[in-house]
Amino acid sequence: MQKSLSTEEIFYINCRAAYLAVLRSSLANITSKEQLCLVLQQAGRNPSQKTLEKFWTERTTKLNFDDFCEILRKEKPTEESELLRAFRKLDLSGQGYVLHSELYKVLTSRGEKMSPEEVNQFLSLAGSNKDGKLDYTQLCRLLVSTAGRCQTLAVEKLESDAKLKQQNFGNQTEISLKDSASQAVPAAPEAPQKTEPDATPRKAEGRSSSRPSSARSRRTSASTNITMAASSTKSGHLSEPKSLQTWHHTSTKGCFFLEEDGGIVSLQYRLHLPQTSTVFLTIRPLNLNQEDERPSSWMKVDTALFLVTANKTKEDSNLVCFTEQRDKEKFGWKGELSAGTYHILPFSTGCRLRRSRAPALKTAQLVYRTDAGELALTKEFRAALSDIFEVIDLDGNGLLSLEEYNFFEERTSGEKCDEDAWAVCKENFDTKKNELTRQGFMELNLMEANDREGDTADLWVTLESMGYSRGLEMVEACPFVIDVYSEETQPTVQPINLESSSKVLNTALHRSVISKGEAKTIKGHENVIIHTYKSEARISSVIANKSSHKVTVHVNSEQSKNCISSRGMSVFAVEVPARTKMVCQHVLPINEKQEWTYHCVESIVS
Q1: What is the model's pTM?
Q2: DSSP letters along 42-92, please?
Q3: 88-106 burial by CB neighbour count: b if 16+ within 10 A, else e?
Q4: Of 492, 481, 604, 606, nearest to 553 (Cα)?
Q5: I want to staple 357 with a disulfide (CB 3.0 to 4.6 A). Which of 75, 196, 475, 487 is the partner?
Q6: Residue pLDDT, tens place only, 399-422
Q7: Bigger pLDDT: 79 vs 329
């Protein structure tokens, strides 16, 4: 049975199709404003000069594939309704027509002025009736359909050309718009750097290579092959200490949020131990559907914790440990920790927390008018708010402190509530022990709806920031629970900040892979080392470039089976600056009940 492609996978297919319709390789760079315009047109966009100048400034010399993808994320296709609104400003009588003479005057005197020749050419293509009137409704429909057709033709060309499909940044020979999806979206904790080398052939320009330019230097490569057994539904290697119930315990909640750029943000925490003790540390997804037989959709999202020393500067932080062992959806670590303060850094690979939802078939209603004409929250909205309350109630006491509420405010509005504003909240909404109750949280949101006379735009901003779709489903977030047990002393855990892929987390991740993974050098490039780590649940690889110059590494995982990658592609390129380390990819099984094989070949692109 075939599965439909995710929104993100379709986006990347369209990006590659448009890029390869103009350039020979996804590693080739856009080298002019005119070339950028062509590529954007192939993607179904109709960029204005203002748009082009925004992305191609006086300092710009080239843009790569990653840059192009970011531009497409920001520049959405022009909707037919937008074009119609512009024409209706000229059609004062509302008859659906605009005089050629009036349109000619506007196009040659306003905005990005067109030359008389350009206007005449445009009007000849647009057509008109015998009275010299333009049916702009038909024209708008034609413009939008033409832009869409450009994009469709580019994709069809990609689908029909085997060589093009083998180009970099998303070779998915197993995946097409007609085939099933088996990859995840790019959400690695450290995104690939911009690729500088231009792989377009400089000699014999009229002659295409017999293989993709990205496939060169294949002989100077490193390969890794790992076969992982199917996961058991029974308990794994993580086992609780027998006397755990007598240990000191503290617990806190948090949530992974998926960002627009595919990154993942979550709270980080401070752990303090008054004295040296044996510690049992775990993290697991939080199931909000306790009463239903069907668990929450994010329960299969992978989670992990990295513990680092809390030194004066982040650069001085050292990796202490990370959760390697697993029991079903729970990941944990047990060992002795010295007295002191540590930072707990939650982590998810992004393989399963991804932008994969289709647009909601129907936008949920948030508020309604009672018979008395007063605004009220719908049952569905109240249920979503109750779940949000559960997620931001970090200590699980059923109340929101100012600190907990401020983490919510920081996530949804980027601001914080001060003591004076919090005092006003306590005066107007239901509180207990100077903290906001669940009912008070509902009242606060109802007040926001009333303040805007039923306009729910700001409420939707809040919901979408918390990972909700327009159908009121939490699809871009994964709540979790952290438990800390200490045998000899009472531990304390305090949330400290909301960060996305922080430098400390990336450094800890690099060190974990390098210290416990297998190292292989790329033949002919002894200073470029591929470190590959495998645990019970994931495989992670890090590229270490010890040379004095940057390198571009071509990564091919096409031969992997039953695998899902954090990159969302089976073939891609990673540019690694001199003397730096960079995450290559994380890989998980698509179906954990089946055996999975990771086969990856890394080579230098020259």
Answers
A1: 0.69
A2: HTT----HHHHHHHS-TT---B-HHHHHHHHHHSPPPPHHHHHHHHHTT-T
A3: eeebeeeeebbebeebbeb
A4: 604
A5: 475
A6: 999 999 999 999 998 888 888 889
A7: 329
